[in-house]
Amino acid sequence: MERLRSRIAGRILASQARIPSSLNSRDRIKMPENLNPFGNFGFKFLIMMALSTILALPLSPMAQQVSVDGEWELVTQTRSGDVTWKVVFAQEGESITVTMTGPRGGEAKGTGTLKEAVIEWTVKVATPRGALEMAYKGVVEGDMMSGVVRRGNIGTAAWTAKRKTA
User: Fold this and answer.
1) Residue 97: CB partners within 8 Å, gap ≥ 6?
2) What is the DSSP string of 24-58?
3) Residue 130, by phi and psi: left (phi above 0), alpha (psi -120 to 50) or beta?
4) What DSSP element (H or E) covers 17?
5) What does the H/E/C string look like for 83-127?
6) pLDDT of the chain along its 166 residues, tens only?
7) The domain 70-163 is classified under which CATH number: 2.40.128.120, 2.30.110.10, 1.20.210.10, 2.60.40.1840?
């Protein structure tokens, strides 16, 4: 190992010995202004590009907030068949208020969040055995959304929803 280090050090010294002594260290590393990317124009250009990128991020489609305001038809796929719910979302920023009306007319209310395209909400449904907490989580894609609901201790089920048009 020591032998390898001395060979490398010897090569470095030999390569440095080939540099004419008339050049000082500043001359050897100085780059012409027109080729220097961090020269006067290059630095300003870099700053302008960085600022324009930062300012454009909130305007990009990925960063825009999705809206779920309005009425939706939600279908839950259960072991006993599909269950259709009428769901009304009221959105204020990332917070949502949910009102769900079941196939037999029962109503459940809850709250949740919508961050970018990820939606989550929880409602409590009255059943003959007591209140059942249902926690929904999914992804919004335009006028459609889909995800999974955890129904208390019963288990999970897939769901899909479609925005109702006027």
Assistant:
1) 89, 90, 91, 109, 110, 111
2) -HHHHH---GGG-TTSHHHHHHHHHHHHHHHHHGG
3) left
4) helix 2-17
5) EEEEEEEEEECCEEEEEEECCCCCEEEEEEEEECCEEEEEEEEEE
6) 566 556 665 555 555 555 555 555 555 555 455 555 555 555 565 566 666 666 665 544 444 578 999 999 999 998 889 999 999 999 999 999 999 998 888 899 999 999 989 999 999 988 888 888 999 999 999 999 999 999 888 889 999 999 998 6
7) 2.40.128.120
Quick one: tokens of 55? 């300012």
Q: 86 and 103 in contact (C-beta within 8 Å)?
A: no
